[in-house]
């Protein structure tokens, strides 16, 4: 009964935020009016409605995908601080995107904004860069047994290298307008994907959630201990690698369209864990709902804070994430490691 009530709470909050997100904007439209205009309307009203619907759908997709990725990483690494952002996967994907745009010419800058002309090359380089980052973190952390401290130190080392590489790339290909556009793109904005692109991201999020849900039994065993997992027929190393590849692919696609959005994969699984417990069969769907609600809420705050200026959701979530990490560190200090 408690789990059912928690699911209903998460779904209710998510639905309320989604509908409210459709009504936020310079023009006064109700959520039902927006849906009708986006699906069956034409003219300027339909254009505005599709932009709002695309933004809301992209928020749900990004939040859900990052949240389930974070839940899976926390399980296979047995580390409460693990998430795509803290492992540096989005930042590494951003380097891949910068290489594709600034070196390979896969994008152009129009009125100071980055326009991707070859999304396949961008996603491919983002995936390869992010995968290399994840493998380096896993290798360095494995040297000391995947403890909380070793994973954190490995993340710091690898992230520093990637940040230096991105800075070097911007310096070597010094172009004020192009560099500024790439930097602005890394802020993370759910308003960038188009109407159909947002639904493509939703499909990526759904596929990610289903994949991680299919491996939930293995995550439960690894979370208890590697020896328990091995005796039950689960190979922790293989599960860790396949999970990393799946997370990297999903994050690379998201970053290619929205930029870097952090802390959702860290915060959402912990919020869901408080509501439904640690069983990953229940935790992964709850994390998806919590993550989607977080990104929707952050986007609404960014749109209402200083209209008509829209603060990118990546910036808003960074403030929330910093406070959440501090709270989590104090909790770890009080109760011990994960």
UniProtKB/TrEMBL annotation:
Species the sequence originates in: Pyrobaculum islandicum (strain DSM 4184 / JCM 9189 / GEO3)
Gene3D superfamilies, alphabetized: ABC transporter involved in vitamin B12 uptake, BtuC (1.10.3470.10)
Keyword Disulfide bond among UniProt keywords: no
A biological process term (GO) from this entry: siderophore-iron import into cell
Top-level taxonomic group: Archaea
PANTHER family membership: ABC TRANSPORTER PERMEASE PROTEIN MJ0876-RELATED, FERRIC ENTEROBACTIN TRANSPORT SYSTEM PERMEASE PROTEIN
Record-stated family: Belongs to the binding-protein-dependent transport system permease family. FecCD subfamily.
Membrane topology: Multi-pass membrane protein
Pfam families: FecCD
GO cellular component: plasma membrane
Matches recorded under InterPro entries: ABC_BtuC-like, ABC_transptr_permease_BtuC
SUPFAM superfamilies assigned: ABC transporter involved in vitamin B12 uptake, BtuC
Residue ranges that the Swiss-Prot or TrEMBL entry lists as coiled coil: none
Membrane-spanning intervals of the chain: 52-73, 85-108, 120-141, 148-174, 194-214, 244-271, 309-330
Protein name (record): Transport system permease protein
Molecular function, one GO term: transmembrane transporter activity
Keywords on record: Cell membrane, Membrane, Transmembrane, Transmembrane helix, Transport
Record localization: Cell membrane
């Amino acid at each position: 009964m408690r789990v059912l009530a928690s699911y209903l709470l998460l779904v209710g909050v998510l639905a309320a935020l989604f509908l409210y997100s459709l009504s936020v904007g310079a023009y006064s439209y109700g959520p039902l009016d927006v849906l009708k205009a986006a699906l069956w309307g034409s003219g300027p009203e339909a254009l505005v409605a599709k932009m709002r619907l695309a933004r809301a759908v992209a928020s749900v997709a990004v939040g859900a995908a990052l949240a389930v990725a974070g839940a899976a990483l926390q399980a296979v690494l047995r580390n409460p601080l693990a998430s795509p952002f803290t492992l540096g996967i989005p930042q590494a994907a951003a380097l891949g995107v910068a290489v594709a745009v600034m070196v390979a010419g896969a994008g152009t800058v129009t009125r100071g904004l980055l326009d991707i002309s070859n999304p396949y090359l961008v996603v491919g380089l983002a995936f390869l860069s992010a995968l290399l980052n994840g493998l380096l973190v896993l290798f360095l952390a494995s040297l000391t047994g995947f403890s909380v401290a070793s994973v954190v130190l490995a993340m710091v080392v690898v992230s520093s290298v990637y940040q230096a590489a991105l800075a070097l790339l911007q310096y070597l290909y010094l172009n004020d307008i192009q560099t500024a556009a790439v930097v602005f793109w890394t802020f993370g904005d759910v308003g960038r994907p188009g109407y159909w692109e947002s639904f493509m991201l939703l499909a990526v999020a759904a596929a990610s959630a289903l994949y991680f849900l299919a491996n939930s039994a293995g995550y439960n065993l690894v979370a208890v201990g590697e020896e328990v997992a091995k005796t039950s027929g689960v190979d922790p190393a293989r599960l860790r690698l396949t999970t990393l590849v799946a997370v990297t692919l999903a994050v690379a696609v998201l970053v290619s369209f929205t930029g870097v959005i952090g802390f959702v994969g860290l915060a959402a699984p912990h919020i869901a864990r408080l509501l439904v417990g640690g069983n990953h069969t229940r935790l992964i769907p709850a994390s998806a709902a919590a993550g989607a609600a977080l990104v929707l809420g952050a986007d609404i705050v960014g749109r209402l804070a200083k209209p008509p200026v829209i603060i990118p959701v990546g910036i808003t979530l960074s403030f929330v994430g910093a406070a959440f990490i501090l709270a989590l560190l104090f909790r770890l200090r009080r109760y011990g490691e994960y």
